[in-house]
Amino acid sequence: MTVVQNTELRHRCELLRSLHLPGTPLLLPNVWDAATARAVVTAGFPVVATTSGGVAATLGYEDQEGAPAEEMFGAAARIVRAVEVPVTVDAEAGYGMEPTALVAALQSLGAAGCNLEDTDHRNGGFRTTDQQATWLAAVRRAAVEADYPFVINARVDVFLGPLLAGADAEALAKLVPEAVERGTAYAEAGADCVYPIGLWEPDALQDFIEQVGSPVNVVRLPQTPPVDQLAALGVARVSWGPFLHYAAMAGFADQLGSLSAG
Fold it and tell me: Does residue 41 contact residue 85 with C-beta atoms inside 8 Å?
């Protein structure tokens, strides 16, 4: 990476970080290829974020690290090249890479930030809070040593499984203390934003935000409150995860159905 390229990447990292304002959330409609990235920028959004699920599907793989890291990073690099705004990459759980190698890969492709989750896809379950915090701290140290101030969005996954299994808001609220413990540790380890994916109920979400003491990312589930209400709760970042990809594919299927029907 040339001096000019590194300077521009640092600028994009700092711009992305500056847009994490509690109460004025950064809106991130997640993309899966260069065309959707350009569409997001054309629509006026200042940052592009990828969805691992959408990217993996486009490449012919399942989500949750079903795709090889080099293919996921190759797709991310094409997205970065397609736009002139910061791009934050869903790097899942880091693909089993050592921190220095992960940071080098993200810097090389030009990512201004990334998501890193605490699910252990290889062994099942979660990394312990200490394991994940230690790993995130090592990622941050590697970035500092590389003069690469990228934005780490640390995903807390304790709500996700219960949500997918049909847990109600009351059941999810009982997981807030564990999520706060994890989120606080991740922020102290060097994460810039904490992402309790699946937490949507307003009272529980506000409880999490007040306790964790870090910018918070919320995903737009069907039951998630509207953006203005999320802003009032102090949310700093709102993303759409895989849902725009789901909607696009559903629309494509509908179109195919109309063609066959005709």
Answer: yes
